[in-house]
UniProtKB/TrEMBL annotation:
Protein name (Swiss-Prot/TrEMBL): DegT/DnrJ/EryC1/StrS family aminotransferase
Tagged with keyword Transferase: yes
InterPro entries: DegT/StrS_aminotransferase, PyrdxlP-dep_Trfase, PyrdxlP-dep_Trfase_major
Keywords: Aminotransferase, Pyridoxal phosphate, Transferase
Gene Ontology molecular function, alphabetical: transaminase activity
PANTHER family named in the record: PROTEIN RV3402C, TRANSAMINASE
Annotated family: Belongs to the DegT/DnrJ/EryC1 family.
Organism of provenance: Magnetospirillum sulfuroxidans
TM regions (residue ranges): none
Length: 361
């Protein structure tokens, strides 16, 4: 096969864009432990979103730290959608909680406050936390989740890993990923965003070995701090975020036009918000995956199936909407730098293999 189109080619800031920040690291000789660049990143992210931000080694650490900062009873159930990436459930496990999976709304693949209330009534044991997910960056009901927490006195932590462009500041902690594949990437990294500064201070202890100002461990913790080098990449990325966002919006718009009616697109993608993946619905995604592979086009199932089917978390539940989404959702090639040749090739391949297959709705 002479033609090959990868599903992802991450693009991080260039050496030239990083140079001013690397010179500062060389001058400061401060490489971790909330150094000057990490502190600047926290301020700039806080200004960008309008709420205090805490840089983290990665988003999984952040979700775990947010749960631990709530001092929840060990073994309690953490309600979460099965339609998510494995990190959601792994974070709950690492915080000493038991994942409790539930189904999602068919229109956007989310756990909603209404669905969470229904699941609370069916739980076999105490639900001490809920972890909604922004699927592939789609915004959740931020105000609805604040109201849910107030009415049910249950900790709520939002897994906003792919939602840099849609996350909203609130009293509920939201954790965003800065992985290389995300809309704003630092190679590795993440941050928590929350107006509850006391909660963020407790999270600081958790990501610094549980230590307080005396440098003695007063709570469970580990090392979840962002290095100065990753902070440098994130800062350089923020410098050029407006241009990058425009490029992503243009790319997603071109992909939407190229794919046409062959697939079902998430609401608002490329219009109200941008993300770094093009996860769309096909009536038969498995056949489409193989057909596109035959044309030299790589695809990806970014979430690797329902979490309640993963061996590490299997619980035997029947969650039909989640099963349907897992069977129909496929990630198409989507990366800054995709040109007319690549997008035309994708459109032609879809037209060739899918002309008589209806899109899933």
């Amino acid at each position: 096969m002479s033609f090959s189109l990868p599903v992802m080619r991450p693009l991080l800031p260039t050496r030239r864009a990083l140079a001013p920040y690397l010179r500062r690291i060389d001058h400061n000789r401060w490489y971790s432990n909330m150094g000057p660049l990490a502190q600047e990143l926290a301020l700039r992210l806080g200004h960008h979103h309008g709420a205090p931000a805490l840089p983290l080694a990665n988003a999984t650490v952040g979700l775990t730290a947010a749960l631990l900062a709530h001092d929840l009873p060990p073994g309690g159930r953490c309600l979460m959608p099965s339609w998510s990436f494995a990190a959601t459930a792994q974070a709950a496990r690492m915080a000493g909680l038991t994942p409790f999976f539930c189904d999602v709304a068919p229109e956007h693949g989310q756990l909603t406050p209404q669905l969470a209330e229904q699941s609370l009534a069916t739980a076999a044991g105490p639900v001490v936390a809920v972890m909604p997910v922004c699927p592939f960056g789609h915004p959740v009901d931020w105000l609805g989740w604040q109201d849910f927490r107030r009415r049910h006195s249950v900790a709520v932590i939002i897994d906003a890993a792919a939602a840099f462009d849609t996350v909203q500041a609130s009293e509920i902690p939201a954790v965003v990923s800065l992985h290389a594949t995300k809309a704003l990437g630092a190679g590795e990294g993440g941050y928590a965003l929350c107006r509850d500064e006391e909660l963020l201070r407790r999270m600081v202890r958790v990501i610094n070995f549980g230590m307080d100002e005396s440098r003695q461990s007063v709570t469970l913790g580990g090392n979840g701090k962002l290095s100065e080098y990753h902070a440098a990449v994130a800062l350089a990325g923020l410098d050029h975020w407006p241009q990058r966002r425009r490029r992503l919006a243009t790319l997603l718009g071109r992909l939407r036009r190229a794919v046409g009616d062959f697939a079902h697109w998430p609401a608002g993608l490329g219009d109200a918000y941008v993300t770094s993946t093009a996860c769309v619905g096909f009536a038969d995604s498995w056949a489409m995956e193989q057909a596109l592979r035959d044309h030299g086009i790589e695809t990806r199932r970014w979430w690797s199936g329902p979490l309640h089917r993963h061996p590490a978390f299997a619980d035997g539940q029947q969650l039909p909407i989640t099963e349907h989404l897992a069977a129909t959702t496929l990630g198409l090639p989507c990366w800054i730098g995709m040109g007319r040749t690549e997008i035309t090739a994708l459109a032609q391949a879809l037209a060739h293999v899918n002309h008589d297959r209806p899109a899933t709705r």
